[in-house]
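I hope you will forgive my troubling you with a question about protein structure. I should value your view on which stretches of the chain appear to form regular backbone elements. Here, with my thanks, is the record as I have it:
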Amino acid sequence: MIVVAILLTALLVQIPVVLNADLGCLLTEGEKVLDGGKLGADVFELNPPLSVYLYMPATMLARMTGIAPEVIVIILVMIEIAGMLFMIDRAAAAARLESAERSVSTCLLAFLFAILPTAVFGQREHIAVIALTPFVAITAIRWRGLAPGPVAILAGLAAGLAVSLKPHLAAVIGLPIILGAFRHRSLRSLFTSEACAAAAVVIGYGALLVSVFPDYLFTYAPMVTAAYLPLRVDLGRLLPFPLLVIAASLALLRMVTSQDVKAAGDATPWLAAAIGGAVSFLLQGKGWTYTAFALCMFAIAAPLLHVRTGRVRAPVMMGGCAAIVFIVFIGFWLSVPVRTFPPLEDRIQSLAKHPRLITIGDHVALGHPLVRQIDGTWVGNSCVQLLAAGATLLKNTSQLTQGEQARLDSIIHFERRQLLADLRSGRPDVILVDTYLLSSFPFDWLAWANSDPELERELRRYREVENVGRVRIFVEQSRAERQPTLARRIEGEEGAQ
């Protein structure tokens, strides 16, 4: 009943807020693939293909039922949570853990899966971490010298899918099993049934990429490697948060297990998973909140799953208060909204109903989920010109060889060609143009586009009608003449007076 209440609460909370820039973009790309587009040739996504296909079931169900796809995403995540909790409980039952311990762990993990993510809910990292958790739980069971039963294979398959989705998360399951191998002084701990199942899925996914998505793997992915992966936040700015979270987790573990050395030791695999989450966060190097979800979730789970109250002791009570503070801090950090752009929905709808829309810029939040909120049509073959932004920044800030310079120039040319193709085939009603590079440096994206003669000729069909904050709004000439902006109307009224 507690688990059901937690899941229903999360469902009600998430329905109005789950749609974010990343989810909106991936849903839109999935729709284009379902309509016949091919990843790496007609549709371009910076992340590997599984990121797009992950949300395709929601899109397909939405078309069959008429329910908004983002709502179906929430429902499918709830089903995943229930499945993973059942898997963990079956492993615990096979290991003959006490029913009280199983109940507590089920309720706590349900809370961490469904409530803690807040604004991260439904993103790829959230889905992947849920799928990884049974693997970590089974590693913790083996750490205690117990057998998890045949459900371990299912946990391995789920973990393999999670690592295929987010390869950086391999550290989350890798560190616990490596520690297990050291503890048992045997390499056999590296070749458990769940580890072999996970490896088989990852290898199979790699083979699938080579055979089914060669355009992405051999043409687009190298451009992503050259222009996007080098975009990283300085390590000095990234380190404080994971260090703080791991230190808080260790301090909380000491408080709640101060008189139970065995429980503290049993928390080691969960702490190792948290450290693996920190490694993943640092490897990705972007500093985005959702990339730290694995770190946050396992750092909270490590101490709280190992509370042994017996009789209520002062350290346990203090630990409970500290845990509440810790969870509130993490939940607040994960829920901090990033509103980079001003509200544009009303302005665009006043210019065109259900417009064909495209953006020129490197920030995905400029066009997504905006295009879905206004019931428009996205006419781009990608959600953003981020490769061009990365190449431009690297050209201006790095010492490059002639070959590297030529490589980055070719990436910029590729992005301009794709934009030209989108303008010609999609005939957007509205174009939104950003005026910043990577949200950090003033940058004239319109001049960037107009430096290509063919693009410049195509863009002559559009007129700037409004400048809202950092965003310039362009509409087709004929539409601009029919629907003047408020500023132009005011100007006309003043002239009449």
In short: DSSP finds 25 helices and seven strands in the chain.
